[in-house]
Design goal:
The structure holds two protein chains of two kinds. Chain A is of the alpha+beta class. Chain A is built from two helices and six strands. In chain A, a hairpin with a 2-residue loop joins strand 4 and strand 5. Chain A is globular and about 30 Å long. By secondary structure, chain B is α/β, with parallel strands linked by helices. In chain B, helix 21 packs parallel to helix 22 and helix 22 runs parallel beside helix 27. Classes of the chains: A alpha+beta, B alpha/beta. At the A-B interface, helix 1, strand 3 and strand 5 of A face helix 4, helix 10, helix 11, helix 15 and strand 12 of B.
Chain lengths: ~80, ~750
């Protein structure tokens, strides 16, 4: 039950979203795309060069750069 | 709505939804492929309208407007801003829609409802198409559509657009909605208190009230949603079309003050909106969606992804796929190409047999048929290229390509999102440049836009194919798997992209320093491409290519013909040609006479073209293009191809047709080029010359439409001029280097 960020998940690991850090349009975009507190996220895999990363969230696959994934705080499950 | 039914204007219905919800399929299903693609004035976001014919109703037809796929109406990118403007009735060319159909992906309801919650704020009669209904079960979900309809207060129709299920129901629901009209019943329009904005913080709602009154006092009444967007969104994203210039600065002050006021009252813009809307959504879907705990089930799509985005295999597959596409374009297209080439020659012969020699026959045969025909020959290849692009886009691979390329592209000053515009630019730079609108970050967008014309578009294809088929040996290497011609074509296709790498780096470093961008993108599940969607895209592009051949290329062909025909006196040539043709047609033709007259005709033709306007221009330009290994004819053809690259093929076709084929048995332009000689008898075209021409065309900016599109997109002449200068310089240098290197190496 450790609090961490999306960036720290390995392929196959998952967590529950706590919140999105910051108060800018990037944060609003992340929320719009469904990274809502309480939702379950799973890390699916990463691009050949290690970045960006593919996640499964609210029933679809979302790609984020690592720097963006760092904004999403999660609790590991 | 009785009053509109009486008037002539068909009702306007907007179609909006998240990307990858099957919106194109639904649009096609509703209006049966009768779509027109255009652009919104001032901005070049693609604009698709279709007519839906309806029997037994007050209206004969309904005008359907397909809005760009978007996740929200927060005007962050140009696509989103256009949707807001159309829905608010701010777009001059489109009247405010009478109804909206919002497409929701049933398997991903919460995120899709975000857009609906914003559309509902607009107070337009709204209908929901709950698409991908058939996939719910597979996803282990159950959804009560009736309950959802009750809970939202909007009619919900279940559809599966790709299988054409629920289309009739959707049409009749739409007709009912329109028949009632906004005044007669509240159906499709929610009470203010039921909207998500009713849950916004009180301070914010009060500020919107105040602003609403203030805008009225300024003589510029705005809808509430427009005011909310002004307050919440980054102000640069709005076109401010609705705000008169006289109050623009007052509005900016007012908005700034209100934002400060709100911030001091603890309203965090823009985040409060997203939170409030998701709160509203949670309430609406409670008890509507049943989902077996979102288990960590690995879907087929994920399994495919594990391979296709794999560290090594993914990259290899990507490169292999691109190579396969270009190889098959050269392979498959040759058959229909021969057919078209044969047809245009046959047509020319028919005209020749029906008319005596003279200027009109020359215009028809040498100008129009030779010019336009030379370009139309490439239609099959262009169709095949667009087919592959449409398939890759529709099956979901294109977004994976963006995903894999992001790290690389961001190192070059762009993002993975630049990949799709650049990939489309391989078909045509114009849709590619327009597609850069989806890139939110200005620096990424400008760099992508400026290098997009370097990608090897389909207009270069005719030039490459002509040169390759005429001068590159038809050999297969590596055990017959790789044709040399295909490999050279592939290399030419790659050249522009390779040159674009340092160009992008320089642009990023020196022209557009700025903040880093983001890469937040949906990776839609892999699916079998829809035949209808693919066919539709290919058809649209083929039509626009034919339209270009029928207009721009037709006109240039005629002009080039005139420049090559006049001012010489053709009477002797016409007499000799007539004598020759009568002799050829007679049953006991004298071969000696035919040979003498043929060589006389060829001599006259090349004398006449040398003295024509074009010939004179060629002599002027020859010293400039001589270092590239070109003669004056090529120089003139390149000049004449400024409107569009493929025109060079038409121009060469006209020049060599007018200038007389050296060999009467020659079949086509490639043969004519091979037999063209310098005055001293050396062939003009060597492999080095052919490569120098190809490299020039790979890098040059010979396309008026592209330059005009850049001007429209950047709203300044500075960037098209910049593009033209930098690309022409690169093209000249590149062609010079290639010609000199190859002539040095290839000399025996």
């Amino acid at each position: 039950m450790a609090v961490t960020t999306l960036n720290d998940l390995q392929a196959g690991q998952s967590g529950t979203i706590l919140d999105v850090e910051g108060n800018d349009s990037l944060a609003a975009r992340l929320l719009e795309m469904g990274l809502i507190p309480g939702e379950l996220v799973e890390m699916i895999g990463q691009a050949p060069m290690g970045d960006p990363v593919e996640f499964s969230v609210v029933g679809y696959r979302l790609s984020l750069r690592r720097i963006e994934a760092r904004r999403v705080r999660i609790e590991r499950t | 709505m009785a009053n509109r039914a009486a008037s002539d204007r068909p009702p306007i219905v907007a179609l909006i939804g998240n990307p990858n919800t099957g919106k194109s399929s639904l649009f096609n299903a509703l209006c049966g492929g009768q779509a027109r693609v255009g652009n919104y004035p001032g901005v070049t976001v693609e604009h698709k309208t279709g007519r839906m014919l309806v029997a037994n109703s007050a209206f004969k037809s309904i005008e359907l407007v397909d809005l760009p796929g978007t996740y929200s109406l927060s005007a962050r990118s140009a696509d989103e801003a256009v949707s807001v403007e159309v829905l608010c009735g701010e777009m001059p060319s489109v009247a405010r829609p009478d109804a909206v159909i919002v497409i929701l992906d049933a398997t991903n309801l919460e995120r899709n409802l975000y857009l609906l919650s914003q559309v509902l704020e607009l107070q337009i009669p709204t209908l929901v198409a709950l698409n991908m209904w058939d996939r719910l079960e597979k996803e282990g979900m159950r959804l009560d559509a009736e309950k959802l309809s009750d809970s939202l207060g909007v009619r919900v129709v279940c559809t599966s657009a790709s299988k054409r299920i629920g289309i009739a129901e959707l049409q009749s629901a739409l007709l009912e909605l329109l028949d009632r009209g906004p005044g007669a019943d509240s159906q499709g329009i929610l009470e203010r208190s039921a909207l998500a904005s009713a849950t916004f913080p009180e301070a914010f709602r009060n500020s919107v009230d105040e602003l609403e009154a203030w805008f009225v006092s300024q003589g510029c009444p705005l809808q509430r949603f427009q005011i909310e967007r002004l307050l919440i969104d980054d102000s640069q994203a709005h076109s401010h079309r609705v705000i008169p210039k006289r109050i623009a600065s007052a509005v900016a002050d007012r908005i700034g003050q209100t934002r400060e006021h709100l911030a001091s009252n603890g309203v965090s813009i823009p985040l409060f909106e997203t939170r409030a809307r998701y709160g509203w959504i949670k309430q609406r879907v409670a008890g509507v969606v049943e989902r077996q705990a979102r288990e960590q089930r690995v879907s087929t799509s994920d399994r495919i992804d594990r391979w296709l985005t794999h560290r090594w295999f993914g990259l290899l597959f990507f490169i292999g796929l691109m190579f396969f596409i270009f190889q098959s374009i050269t392979g498959i297209a040759s058959w229909p190409m021969d057919g078209i080439g044969f047809a245009s020659q046959w047509l020319g012969q028919q005209v020749e047999s029906m008319m005596g020699p003279g200027p009109l026959r020359s215009l028809l045969v040498d100008g129009i048929i030779a010019g336009v025909g030379a370009v139309l020959v490439f239609l099959p290849q262009i169709a095949i290229l667009f087919f592959f692009i449409a398939v890759l886009e529709d099956c979901g691979y294109m977004s994976r390509a963006a995903f894999m390329m992001d790290k690389f592209m961001s190192a070059l000053g762009m993002s993975g999102k630049s990949f799709l515009p650049l990939m489309s630019s391989f078909a045509c730079a114009i849709p590619g440049i327009m597609a850069t609108r989806t890139i939110e970050n200005r620096r990424d967008r400008m760099v992508t836009l400026l290098i997009a014309p370097l990608m090897s578009c389909s207009a270069r294809w005719p030039v490459y194919v002509l040169m390759v088929s005429a001068f590159v040996p038809k050999q297969a290497v590596l055990g017959g798997w790789v044709s040399v011609q295909g490999a050279v074509l592939f290399a030419m296709m790659c050249l522009g992209a390779l040159v674009a790498i340092p160009v992008a780096w320089l642009l990023k470093r020196f022209v557009f320093p700025g903040e880093p961008s983001t890469f937040i993108m949906e990776l839609s599940s892999y699916k079998w491409p829809s035949f209808r969607v693919v066919a539709m895209r290919v058809w649209e592009r083929v039509l626009s290519f034919i339209a270009r051949a029928g207009t721009l290329i037709f006109v240039t062909s005629v002009l080039v013909w005139a420049a090559a025909y006049f001012p010489g006196d053709h009477s002797l040539l016409d007499q000799t040609t007539a004598k020759l043709e009568t002799e050829q047609a007679s049953p006991n033709a004298d071969p000696a006479k035919i040979q003498a007259w043929t060589s006389q005709v060829n001599q006259l033709k090349s004398d006449l073209i040398a003295k024509s306007f074009l010939g004179v221009a060629g002599q002027w330009i020859e010293p400039i293009v001589r270092p590239l290994g070109w003669d004056g004819k090529i120089g003139v053809a390149v000049l004449a191809s400024f409107p569009a690259r493929e025109v060079i093929v038409a121009t060469l076709g006209t020049i060599y047709s007018l200038g007389g084929a050296q060999d009467e048995t020659s079949d086509g332009l490639a043969e004519n080029l091979r037999s063209a000689t310098w005055p001293d008898g050396r062939p003009v075209y060597t492999l080095a010359t052919a490569c120098s021409i190809m490299v020039f065309f790979a890098l040059c900016a010979q396309c008026v439409s592209t330059l005009v599109t850049i001007r429209r997109e950047t709203n300044s002449w500075r960037w098209p001029i910049f593009s033209f200068v930098y690309m022409t310089t690169l093209a000249y240098l590149g062609a010079w280097i290639v010609y000199n290197l190859m002539s040095a190496w290839l000399v025996p």
